[in-house]
Design a protein that fits this description.
The protein has a three-stranded mixed sheet, sandwiched between helices. It is of the alpha+beta class. The protein is globular, with a radius of gyration of 14 Å. 38% of the residues lie in helices and 17% in strands.
Length: 121
């Protein structure tokens, strides 16, 4: 929770928006913002030893942000904390609905389906 709040604060100050989705022991992240800042952040993510195997699925310019606010979802929510109190927290179905019409909506749906079927060991 502490790491999540720190990252959320950094993203807000840096003008980064996007999605962080956790399901089945895996993360899917969409980062939007100034290309230089996003690439710098992604380099930090890649270098972080807490992150095991990672794969960039897409990179490039888009005409508008799909996530003007930062959103996150956990499937299922971990522990007894009330995750709904976090700014931008949505349940996975709400997140997919919020993404309707975006280029990432099919990716979010597929990620949830695959991660639910094949939990990371």
């Amino acid at each position: 929770m502490q790491l999540l709040k720190r990252a959320w604060g950094f993203n807000e100050r840096a003008g980064i928006t996007g999605v962080l989705l956790f399901s089945g022991g895996r993360f899917l992240q969409v980062l939007e913002g100034c290309p230089t800042i996003v690439r710098r952040l992604y380099a930090r993510i890649e270098a972080d030893p807490r992150h095991g195997c990672h794969e960039k699925l897409a990179d490039g310019w888009v005409p508008r942000r799909d996530y003007g606010q930062w959103h996150m979802a956990f499937a299922p929510p971990p522990g007894p904390s009330d995750w709904r109190q976090l700014p931008g927290y949505l349940t996975p179905p709400e997140l997919v609905l919020a993404a309707l019409g975006s280029a990432t909506q099919p990716l979010l749906s597929e990620f949830l389906a695959i991660s639910a079927m094949q939990p990371l060991v």
